[in-house]
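Late entry, evening session. Most of the bench is empty. Finally got around to the prediction I had been postponing all week. Sequence below, unchanged from the version circulated by S.P.
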Amino acid sequence: MDFLVHLAKGFIGMFQAGGAQFMGLAKGILPTLICLIVIVNALIKFVGEERIYRFAQKTTKYAILRYTIFPILAVFFLTNPMCYSFGKFLPEKQKPAFYDAAVSFVHPITGLFPHANSAELFVYLGIASGLTTLGLSLEPLAVRYLLVGILVILIRGLVTEWITNMMLKRQNQSIQKAT
């Protein structure tokens, strides 16, 4: 009988923990995200969607800009996780690579711009505490994180775009063979 009581408590406890987690999100990041989404969409309406698309096209015309400047702007201004919405300004075939670049940049930016991904700040601060214990400056670390991050997002963006293009070609070949 104790086993069933323990099982029932564990079962309902799982849902209570889920509810507590949900309430934590409802009190924390969800209102922030909703406000950010509203403001960004309002800004896009005020500026004009055509102008935003033209700016995005100029910023993403070349792969080196598409996987450096564009994700940097997205992460800096919209922060994590809203930054991924910048992908809506790209053609479908470039969205996976943009997402890969943006998601790879949310950590390296925290050293210089902690607002961009405050949830990842604990990782940077953990490493930084070791340096401060040794009496070393944090600024060179933050700059190196940023520079290496930019290089990594460029490489990841290019590789993911290449893989996406290969997969799209294979998919098109499969469709042509089927018809």
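Two things to note before I forget:
The first helix runs from residue 2 to 27.
The CA atoms of residues 114 and 121 lie 6 Å apart.
Will write this up properly tomorrow.
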